[in-house]
Structure formats: structure tokens, C-alpha cells
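Thread: Modeling a multi-component assembly for a lab meeting

Hi all, long-time lurker, first post. My supervisor asked me to bring a structural picture of a complex we are working on to next week's group meeting, and I have zero experience with this. I have the sequence lines for every component (546 residues in total). Could someone generate the structure of the whole assembly? Inputs are pasted exactly as I received them:
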Amino acid sequence: MDAIITMESKKYLQDRGLLFWMIILPILFTVIFISVFTSGVSDDVKTEVITSIIPGYAVMFVFFVMINMAETLLNDKNSGMIARIASTPLSPYKYLLGKWFPNLFVVLIQIVILFAFGKLVYDISFGQPFALLLISIVLAVTVTGLGLALALLVNSNNMAVALTQVIALGGAVLGGLWMPIDMMPSFIQNFANFLPQFWAHQAYQSALVGELEMIELAKSISILLAFGLAGFFLALIRYPHFLKKARG
Amino acid sequence: MLSIQEVKKTYEKTDALKGVSLQIERGICFGLVGPNGAGKSTLIKMIASVIPDFDGEISFNFDDPQSIKRHIGYIPQDICLEQTLTALDNLYFFGKLYGLKGKELKERAETVLKLIGLEKHGKEKVLKFSGGMKRRLNIGCALLHEPQLIIMDEPTVGIDPQSRLYIFDMIEALKEEGCTIIYASHYMEEIERLCDEVAMIDQGVIVEQGEIDELLKKHAEPALFISGDNCLPDDIGEYCTVEDRKEGYLLKANNLLLIIEKILNYVKENASQLYRFELVQPRLEDVFISLTGSQLRD
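Re: Modeling a multi-component assembly
Sure thing. I ran the full set together rather than chain by chain. Output:
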């Protein structure tokens, strides 16, 4: 399995597209939106906006790793690499784990960089660092679990890109990542409860200002994990079919 | 080395293989020929454990019967390389998949790079390689773990003659080292050059198998190519088949000596002019066409 992890990691380190989507674009969005929404407002409002936008864009952009996951698995399927690897002693499930693991790290690194940027440039406070770390790990598991399901369900890169846009952007709008959820109509506020983005964002915001209660943390983490596990479950159901197609 | 018994494979409603049986002896190069869609790649993928679900039985006779996959090197028709990484990265990757590590992995990678003629390109990205270099690296990735059985599926598709010759030399060297090789191709001249035995597969069944010389003797008629002015007796068609070719005639018969004698006598008596008069070596392709017909396959 470490062969797959090493190979994937080397590929990702050279992938400028990944760097742009996962790091540069979210930083650009963060800077632009913070400067738009904080011009001419009081310091209290400014802090509130920053505390919402930084985790908001972090949560939104981590979902774009799903494109990467779909692309790498579909490329391996279409190039014959999965069939080739099937002839080696590596088990198919270790292959899948090897493909999943680097993406988990990509997401974690992405979150660390985006929050570190927030700290360095906007001096956000890390009120409950342990809670922030826990939310980040669980969010990474959730997103990559969903990404695995997407990768094994779609038949083309275009389909993966389209569905990821719907999940990432739709979830961002409806989950209150772009504007405070209190400002949304009540039916959207209700719908937000069914989105992982909402729970991650709410938990991050409370943890940043040090107001996340244990029970709320447990609830958010459980819901996020449920989404992630649902993704893994779907992926495992779909995997034998995917393998059969890939092997020819 | 390898015994295949009544192997069958069905894809939805299509029978890809309809009961294939083969015996492949240790240390030989065994050719597998057939038109596109004949079932070659399916059979090869079954032998290489890529397709695990099928009817029938495939059994191996390796020195160490545990972990069969460690004794097989599979070279697929597709170029299965990570193009954005270097040749060495690709070799390390496949080496690790076969359980090689540390110093052993490095040494094997260096040895294989030399074997495939890429020792000066180990640190270059595969993306910059020519088609021939990629093909050779594709082969190299399957040789790292020193397999006893090497399975090659169309390893020379789309490459230049120099790379093709290099691959032929590699295969001959591997054979001398005692490896058993299964070589699937639809280039008959490659099979004739490299293989000791051949199986011809068409529409999911083996239509003929055996040593190449035996098959040529059994199925291919000796032939004579002739061109000239007024060089064929009128009754020659009674003794042989005559094919009108672009620059002359191709005569096929079991008793060619009789035909030669007749033609030479006729030419002498009529003072005819002969431009070309040559014996044509029977080819595997003729055997294949005679067994499977010339109809196009879908």
C-alpha cells in the first residue's frame, strides 16, 4: 500500500492544478470577500465576518478534493493501471486505501494552510485548538469518504467535476458558508441541517471563538462522520462493479 | 509450467471464450495469435489473475506454488505508466508492489533499466519518452521481480523498427535465462521469429495449436511465384491453384517439383521469357487465414 501512497503523493506534489484549486483559489476568495465585507464596518463586525469567512471558504474548498479523487481513480481505470495492478500481489482494498490516504492528507494540509493564513494575515483566534483539530480530521474523513463514493459512481471526469461543483457550491450557498445562515429563509435554514458543510462551519465558528460546548462538538462530529461513513459504505458497495469494469 | 483446462468466459450475452484448453511447457516462448476480439486478451488477463471469475481451471507449476502472482510478470497492451513521474519512480513503484524494497529494489531497478536500454533516462519523466521507450519501460516494470512466467500482450504495438528489434532481443535473452513467455500478437512474423509453439484463437476457441514448423507443414502449401511472357502452360490449372498477383502468378501445390518441371519444359519449348521464378516460403499468416477465413471481424 505504501507504494500507492508514495506514487500518489509524488504526483500531487507536482500537480500545479491541485495547488491552485486547493490553496491559491481559496486564499484569493478569502482575501477578496473579507475586503468586500469588512470595508467601513466596526471592528466587532469585522472580526465576526473574518471568523465566518475563513472557516467558510476552508469548508467550501475542501470539497474540491472530490474532483481529484475521481480523476485519479478514473484515470487508473481508463489507462489500464487498475488491471495492471490486479496482476500484482497488492489486494484491491489496499489499492483503494492507498488512493484514499493521500487525499486525506491533502485536505488536512489544505485546512492547516488556510487557517494558518487566517492567523497570520487576519489574526483570528484559535479559541479551542483541540476542537479545531478534531473537526478538521473528521471533516477530512467526511469529504474523502464522499469523494471516494463519487469517484466510484461516476463514469467520466466531466461528470465528477459537475457533481462536485453542485455539492461544493450548492452546499456552500445552502449551508451558510457565503452568508450567515440566520439571514436565510427558514426553509433553507431547515435544509442546512442536512448538509455536512453547515455542521462543519458552525462547529469551526464556535471553536474559533472558544464557545463550542462538548455536546455541540460531539453532535457536529457525529453528523459529519455519518456523512463520511455513508460515503465509504457507498464506495464499498460500488467498488466490485468498478473493479470488474476496470479489469475488462 | 501452465495448464489451462476448459476455460470459459462470458460478458453479459457474449461468449468471449468457449472452452479453451492449453498446455504450456517451461522455458518456451508460446505464441497466441488471433484477430481483434478473438479472446486473446481475455485469456491473457485470466492467466495473469487480472480476471478472477471464469469457468474452468488454470493451474501453474512454479518452484514455489504459494503466491502465484509473485512469479508472473504481466505486460499489458496499454502503457501502464505514471507519465508525470520518472522512469525510476515507475520502476520503484512496481518493484514495491511485488514486495521488493531497499537495496534490492534499487539494484533491480538499475539492472532492469540497463536491460531495457534506458540506463541514461532513469531520472527523466516518462512524459518526454518516445513510444518505443515507453513500451520498453512498460516491459521493464514487469521484470523487476524476476518472474518465471512473462505474459506479453501485444508488446510492440505502435513502435519503431529499432525498438521492436530491441524488444525481440530482450525476449530472446529472457528465454535463454529460462523464463517461460506467453506472447500474444496479431503480427504473425513476430510469432514466427520468437515463438516455439503457437495457439491460434478465433471467436473464443482454439482453432489450432502446436509447433510452428509442424503447423506450416500441416496447413501451408508450398508455393511458387512466377512472372514472365507466355510462361504458363494452358493446362497448369489442372495441377495447381493459380492466383493472379499484381506482377505475376502465385502457384500453390503439394507437389511443386512437378509444377516446376512442367513450367521449365514449357518455357524451353516456347522460348518464353522468365523475369521472376522463386519459391515462396509458407507463412504462419497463410495458415491462420486458411483456418479462420479472411472475413472481417467486428
